[in-house]
Design goal:
Elements (H helix, E strand, L loop, with lengths): L2 H14 L22 E2 L5 E2 L4 H17 L1 H14 L4 E2 L8 H5 L7 H23 L10 H26 L17 H8 L6 H15 L16 H11 L8 H13 L9 H4 L16 E5 L31 E2 L1 H10 L2 H7 E4 L12 E4 L9 E5 H14 L5 H14 L7 H4 L2 H15 L6 H7 L3 H11 L21 H6 L10
Antiparallel strand pairs: 1-2, 3-5, 4-8, 6-7
Length: 508
């Protein structure tokens, strides 16, 4: 039901039927409709969680979002992070994905509409736990458990808002569960259902607040289980937000990168351990590597469908391989791998198959992104190489920067890839070293949804993206030039139609 129509109907109903106490909207705030009501007590007061079991069930629902709802936090982020940058083409000619390649994205884009709604569902899940876990009337739920579950929800909410703010900039900041609407509280409750946008800086400040509050009570890093919202996940996101412009603090990037090292994180010795398969292609080569900070894990029998969207599922080779896949590696990226002589990461990032389509390459030698190659491979949300290279960026960029220390980090990553060390001329030049870092991140993190956000963070969108169309012969014709407005995605028009208090981002 259209939300504005539902809201108007509720007001009319309250006004006409005087004996009704309220017109209840037992809904999560904003744009998603999922029932969150456990019930009411004998006094008629709302009960979010009736007991510990209900809390544990809700906690599991948060974690299930990482496993079962991959579209917004993985699939679509790769479309934005790689196909909207120079790493990839859209992969298909579908109207929902092609605009990310040729820069013709509009507010009507169905991918962005889906993502906005899914993110807000995630926020609602987190808010319910944060707001109500302390008031659960069940003595078997200990204070330590309450603190941990609340911390996990705050970390979950922080990583959701980090994705949202990087995509859209100013977004509604909702940190509580909306009350039911009654005739007496309409003016009070209305903003909860139709919130205005908070500034980008305010959203980052809330992310920071959530993470800092969560660290004391969040579970510690577990080397055998990288699927939890741990202290280390919070530290990783803190390192990332302090590299972004609104809260930029390079010393804190370095601090949290070092804290992750103290938590036991390090580069995995073999790059293939991160994304590879066992010798028989029946299972992932390795899970819970020392480099993985947060991942969604899948096993035989409960596999991950999203692999169908990018290439072959090596555990079921011919399954779902009859249509053109998303995020096709670009010629520009392939050339960069080859010019660098980077065979290790190239072999783990790109694979060639024969296809029945030829949208971008000849059908008999068609490249695919290869970092998700089966339904039992993990989806890695954060890994230590990303944070380590952010530390190098911070060392280059901060006042009185340490170029040698930054170059040593880049060389550490290059050494694992069996590449030569950076030349002295690069190590001694801030500009050259920053360019080397950006290229290193491109090759190391290809098809992990990072490239676009690197260009945005370092103000490289216009210079890189407006030039790539001329040198990449396979890229679809550019529709609009990239400008300073391009740094944000358009807010979905369907969301604007529902909430009159939202404003479209400039340029759309």
């Amino acid at each position: 039901m259209n939300m504005k129509r539902y809201f108007s109907y509720c007001i009319v109903w309250v006004g006409i039927v005087a004996f009704l106490q309220s017109c209840s909207l037992s809904r999560d705030p904003l744009d998603s409709f999922s029932d969150v009501t456990e019930g009411v007590d004998e006094k008629g007061e709302y009960v979010a969680f009736k007991d510990k079991g209900a809390v544990l069930s809700h906690r599991q629902a948060m974690y299930d979002q990482i496993r079962n709802r991959q579209e917004h936090w993985y699939l679509d982020l790769l479309l934005v992070g790689d196909a909207h940058a120079d790493n990839a083409y859209a992969g298909t000619t579908g109207a929902e994905v092609l605009p990310f390649e040729n820069n013709s994205i509009e507010g009507s884009n169905s991918v962005l509409a889906r993502d906005w709604s899914r993110y807000m569902e995630d926020v609602a899940l987190a808010n319910k736990m944060v707001q109500y876990v302390d008031s659960v009337n069940d003595n078997s739920l200990t204070s330590a458990e309450r603190g941990q579950f609340k911390a996990e929800a705050q970390i979950f909410r922080a990583l959701v808002y980090f994705d949202m703010v990087r995509l859209w900039g100013d977004v509604p900041l909702v940190t509580t569960v909306a009350k039911d609407i009654t005739s007496e509280n309409i003016k009070e409750v209305y903003p909860s259902y139709f919130p205005t946008q908070s500034t980008e800086k305010e959203v980052y400040e809330q992310i920071q607040k959530d993470l800092l509050e969560a660290i004391p009570n969040a579970p510690a890093n577990n080397a055998a289980n990288k699927t939890i919202f741990s202290k280390s996940v919070a530290r990783a996101v803190l390192a990332k937000i302090y590299a972004e412009k609104p809260l930029r603090d390079y010393n804190k990037v370095i601090q949290y990168a070092d804290e992750l090292a103290a938590d036991g994180f390090a580069l995995e010795p073999e790059f293939s351990n991160l994304f590879g398969m066992n010798e028989n292609n029946t299972d992932a080569k390795k899970r819970n590597t020392q480099e993985s900070i947060l991942e969604g894990q899948f096993f035989a029998g409960n596999g991950n469908w999203v692999t169908w969207m990018f290439g072959r599922d090596l555990t079921n080779y011919n399954s779902n391989f009859t249509w053109a896949k998303w995020v096709t590696p670009s010629r520009d990226l392939i050339n960069t791998f080859q010019q660098e002589g980077d065979q290790v990461r190239y072999a783990q990032s790109i694979v060639f198959y024969q296809t029945t389509w030829s949208n971008y390459y000849p059908a008999n030698n068609y490249p695919f992104m290869y970092k998700l190659r089966s339904a039992v491979n993990s989806l890695i949300k954060y890994r230590y190489a990303d944070i380590l290279l952010l530390k190098a960026e911070a060392l280059i960029q901060r006042d009185g920067g340490d170029l040698n220390a930054a170059a040593d980090i880049i060389d550490q990553v290059r050494t694992r890839a069996k590449l030569t060390l950076l030349p002295s001329a690069t190590r001694s030049s801030r500009t050259a070293l920053l360019d080397a870092l950006l290229k290193e991140r491109r090759l190391e993190l290809a098809f992990e949804g990072q490239r676009w956000f690197d260009l945005v963070r370092l103000d490289k969108v216009e210079s890189v993206m407006n030039a790539v169309y001329a040198r990449d012969s396979g890229r679809r014709t550019q529709v609009y030039p990239f400008t300073n407005y391009s740094y944000r995605m358009p807010i979905p028009q369907s969301i604007l139609d529902q909430n009159p208090n939202l404003k479209q981002n400039l340029g759309y």
